[in-house]
Prior knowledge:
Order of helices and strands: HHEHEHEHHEHEHEHHHH
Distance between the termini: 26 Å
Largest sheet: 6 strands, parallel
Shape: globular
Amino acid sequence: MIQFLRKLLVLAVTGWLAGYFTPAVAQPAARRPAALPVKAILFVGNSFFHGKYQPVLAYNAAHVIDENYGLPATDPRCETTTGEPVVWGGIPGIFQQFTEEAGLNYEVHFEEINARPLQYHYEHALSIIQQPRWHTVVLQEHSVWALPPRRGGHPELFRDYATRLERAVHAASPGAGVFLFQTWPRADLCYPPNTPFTGLPIDSMAHELHASYYNLLAQNPGFKSIAPAGDAWLRAVQSGLVQRNPYAPEPGKIDLWAEDHYHPSNWGAYLTACVLFGEITGYDPRILGGTEQAAAALGISSEEAVSLQRVAAEQIRAARPNAFADQPVGSEKPATRRGKLKS
């Protein structure tokens, strides 16, 4: 409660409260069906989860729990040393909003430190990650560490520390679902000169990330699954829905990258949250529909939201063909379908 009130105070002081905390954006926890058990989920990662730019950065911050919030400046997990706002919502905040609208009872936590790999979280945040309360833990590696060394990666450290964290989670909570989060290809590492993928299409980085994550999944059955965000970004590019190269804009197409061509735009964050929602909850993201509230708050049109939900569903089904097989998607609102959703 103290953390919640402190977040509200910071939001109000900075002027974000009016823009990002409205009834249309974040529904109170009391609206969740009391009959469903609470599922505590922890997102572990960096700015690929919390984002870099508004409105994603602070989206729904009052309804997610930042495990690093308010730490002293001397703490290695302290967020104030980055110079960015300490009140974050990001993709976990969008995920939380989706679960509210779908009538699911998730309590969303995150442990995120800018620019840090999983090794850093293992060394400095194990006391948070290794707790028996987690129903689900999602692990996000640094955006290049899963790549081969010739691309600037550290794949041996990725495999080592992702596995260490999986074992730590299961030592504390044997029944927890531990997911790997496959990051997206970075345009800033493909199109400018003298970068790891210069002269190669964005597909190349996406394919190398895919191989690294899915090889680890095959080697370690302790991971429940992969949330294939990177593959979904590539699918969106290849379908013609979004721009392939943000340095050469294509009118009428969505840009998944933010202005630095690195972090997610509103649309990139939304697609990523759709993938996480579908993979983790098991529910087709298309049930969210064209009136989904996070999309409206982020300036995403109804048509764009439906298209991004579709891409996420298609990518999840490409990896798991039977996903959502028992969930026909019609015109009903998620709130009216609660009786059909299983916890």
